[in-house]
Design goal:
By secondary structure, the protein is mainly β. It is 5% helix and 41% strand. Strands 3, 4, 5, 6, 7, 8, 9, 10, 11, 12 and 30 form an eleven-stranded mixed beta sheet that branches.
Length: 498
């Protein structure tokens, strides 16, 4: 058994981070690692309390460089763009097909307000020629918008109650086969709202699969198929909170992969919430994670009195029960953040140097009472897909945050605080690519007196991942900022033009 893994010495005035061993467990075991309050407290401990108005209070090595406000639009005015993911295989290699790179994105009509996009989201796709360096492409990345993936109405078929007011598609992942078949895993969602926008009943979110084919010629890429959807998983109320337990539950964002430690098995991670009734005082002492006798430890009942028990994020795990990957079985979650945070969005498993990195994204406003941290990427490392995961970077979990000043409130993306750093909302929905490259979309850049909304992919950045650290590489691109919407393939699939 591996011994405890050391973290940085406690900062004066703050508790010590929880000790995590990184020990691997069998994926079938009933062991869930905890991202604890003691861990998350290390984010505040790293923040500079003297940072003034519009300054970044977080360590530069864990902070995404500031994105300029004169960013280009990758869709040339056609659609809003946010969560995006490339074609990959079971090892997360990113594919071009016959010389074309392909990117899937959530898109919405630009006639909608940017903040109205979520209930109208559809999955679209983009393509561009591969092998062209970012500095030789158009500034917007050189993508061509190919249109929507699904024919109208297809993704609503799996819902028994067809009285939905909005039927939408949320994030997922795309697996390419040698014959050009694509398995598109995604979040299939139905909203049931009245004319005033109030919920008639809770929304219905499911993890789904659809199959299609990719076709290429000298002019570009088209997709066919995607005319049938298979309902794979619905939140079970045992491991993963469902609508009966919480009408605002999170259950989405499937990412599939193969684990070299378990040949022949395909797994999926996804965002969930711990399966407790909303409002129940469900946190336990282990969720706090303080060492015995720590003078800065919180009291469990006080933490819940302050409302932290409403934040119940977890990262779920499922295993495929056949080679077609259309039958899945839930396993216990691999990470919980009870009384810490309410969202662990778009999780992914990233393997490097024999280590398993779990990356996820989260918001500042989804932290539980008494905790704080930037919008951005959070990371954990262990020796297997189910591990006693150690949070990266001084035991905090923060891997790549937006420039943020924790001494000031953030406001909202549509109304950013005047005193906040202009990059507070600059990027979200990060996806960690091979080689430590990270893509994300632009939300808002600027502060209350001068800001611009996004709706397009931002510049790619690079983090150097090693052991229990992830550090921004400011030698990459222009002082750390690479090309806008640069999602480069690292593997080519050639199966003939058709």
């Amino acid at each position: 058994m591996a011994g405890p893994v050391s973290t940085a010495a406690p900062v004066a005035g703050f508790p010590a981070a929880t000790t995590h061993t990184q020990q691997a467990h069998d994926p079938e075991e009933n062991f869930t690692s905890r991202w604890t309050r003691a861990d998350a407290m290390q984010i505040k401990a790293m923040s500079n309390p003297a940072a003034g108005s519009r300054e970044n209070s977080m360590p530069e090595e864990y902070t995404m460089p500031t994105v300029p406000q004169d960013f280009p639009d990758m869709s040339n005015g056609q659609v809003w763009v946010w969560d995006s993911w490339p074609l990959t295989d079971a090892k997360a290699n990113q594919y071009s097909v016959n010389g074309w790179e392909v990117l899937f994105s959530l898109v919405a009509d630009r006639n909608l307000g940017f903040d109205d996009r979520h209930t109208f989201a559809k999955i679209g796709f983009f393509y561009r020629q591969t092998g062209i360096p970012a500095d030789q492409r158009p500034k917007n990345g050189g993508w061509t918008y190919g249109g929507l993936v699904f024919p109208e109405g297809v993704t609503g078929d799996i819902f028994k109650d067809k009285s939905y007011s909005h039927q939408t598609q949320w994030s997922g992942s795309a697996r390419i086969s040698p014959n050009g078949e694509i398995k598109l895993f995604f979040s299939d969602v139905a909203f049931y709202r009245d004319a005033q926008g109030n919920d008639r009943k809770p929304y219905d979110s499911r993890i789904a699969l659809s199959l299609g084919k990719i076709h290429t010629n000298k002019n570009g890429v088209k997709l066919t198929g995607f005319n049938h959807v298979t309902d794979l998983l619905q939140a079970d109320g045992k491991y993963y909170q469902n609508a009966a337990q919480n009408p605002f539950y999170n259950f989405r964002d499937p990412f599939t992969f193969e684990d070299p430690a378990h040949p022949g098995k395909t797994y999926m991670v996804f965002e969930g919430n711990s399966a407790f009734q909303r409002g129940s005082r469900s946190c336990v002492k282990a969720d706090l994670g303080y060492a015995e006798g720590d003078p800065h430890a919180e009291d469990l009942q006080t933490v819940m009195d302050n409302g932290a028990h409403f934040q119940l994020a977890n990262v779920g795990l499922a295993v495929a029960e056949n080679n077609k990957l259309d039958k899945w079985r839930f396993l216990p979650p691999i990470l919980s953040a009870n009384c810490v945070n309410d969202q662990t969005e778009r999780p992914q498993i990233y393997m490097k140097d024999g280590k398993y990195y779990l990356f996820t994204i989260s918001h500042r406003h989804t932290y539980a009472s008494g905790l704080d941290g930037p919008e951005g990427v959070y990371g954990f490392v262990g020796n297997g897909v189910r591990s006693d995961f150690q949070p990266l970077n001084r035991g905090s979990g923060l891997a790549l945050g937006n420039p943020t000043n924790l001494n000031f409130l953030g406001g909202n993306p549509f109304d950013p605080d005047f005193n906040q750093h202009p990059g507070h909302y600059q990027a979200y929905s990060h996806y960690v690519m091979p080689g430590g490259l990270v893509q994300s979309f632009i939300d808002t850049i600027g502060t209350k007196d001068n800001f611009r909304r996004g709706g397009t992919l931002g510049p790619t950045v690079k983090i150097n991942i090693s052991g229990d650290t992830a550090v921004v590489d400011r030698t990459y691109g222009d002082h750390g900022l690479g090309g806008f919407a640069d999602v480069p393939a690292d593997t080519e699939l050639g199966h003939g033009n058709n």
